[in-house]
What we know:
Strand order of the largest sheet: 2-3
Order of helices and strands: HHEHEEH
Radius of gyration: 14 Å
Largest sheet: 2 strands, antiparallel
Distance between the termini: 28 Å
Helix content: 25-40%
Strand content: 15-25%
Amino acid sequence: xxxxxxxxxxxxxxxxxxxxxxxxxxxxxxxxxxxxxxxxxxxxxxxxxxxxxxxxxxxxxxxxxxxxxxxxxxxxxxxxxxxxxxxxxxxxxxxxxxx
Length: 99
């Protein structure tokens, strides 16, 4: 089961009007980055932290430490890192656009 993108369409269209970033690109990246088994087909990061894109750092609601897989010099490492946490999905979409 994939991500239900319907709840994000209006926010993606609004960001498109503001920034010129196509809503289709925003929605496609949500589908790529946020798939999981929580309600709406969302990953834990997307569902609990409203972080739709795996953005690291601090967001409008602070940060959340989660396990992740990183590749350095061809070697795979499992580490914990700080991911941005947002007050709303719109905040997450806006942060993605600003990147």
